[in-house]
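User: My advisor asked me to double-check a structure prediction for 2-hydroxyhepta-2,4-diene-1,7-dioate isomerase before group meeting. I don't want to rely on an old file, so could you generate it fresh from this sequence?
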Amino acid sequence: MKIICIGRNYADHIAELHNETPAAPVIFLKPETALVQRGQPFFYPDFSTDIHYELELVLRISKNGRHIDAAFAHTYFDAIGLGLDFTARDLQSELKKKGLPWELAKAFDGSAPISPTFRPVAEFADLANINFRLEVNGETRQTGNSSLMLHPFAQIISFVSRYITLKQGDLLFTGTPAGVGPVQVGDQLVGYLEDEKLLEIAIK
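Assistant: Sure, here is a fresh prediction for 2-hydroxyhepta-2,4-diene-1,7-dioate isomerase from the sequence you gave:
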């Protein structure tokens, strides 16, 4: 399986990091070793002093496809969960200054915790109106809604599949809203999909 991530998909997050708004989805990949599953902790790496959380809606791809028409994109994922795109912001800033890829800052081991469970798509009345939020040590830091995406689910799937074949079991991170910030050892992060606690992870 592979982890495909979409960057700069919420206008307020683009603004808080002073980035340019892209005309097309920004795509990067994480390896399978980035996954943190079943509520395991995230261990702060020794190569960064500025790890940031980014909570995202994650789509679980349910069948293989390439060159998928946006009108049929909804048939290519069967469940939605939560994921954290941990980012070594200090490394990312240096890489961006040099015009280099972001992989060292985005794809390191443990950089993609996901919720132990995903909710079936059929449980959502409107895929364009899904609420999610992140609490850090009991304080709400991020709130998002899928209606605020610059590129909605169908457009993302169609765009990605023009370049990369989607396969059953792939995970698609769909971008993060504003409110990102640093984590410290000892922090407890809890993610909610609608009002259901779906993701909980400790920083060690």
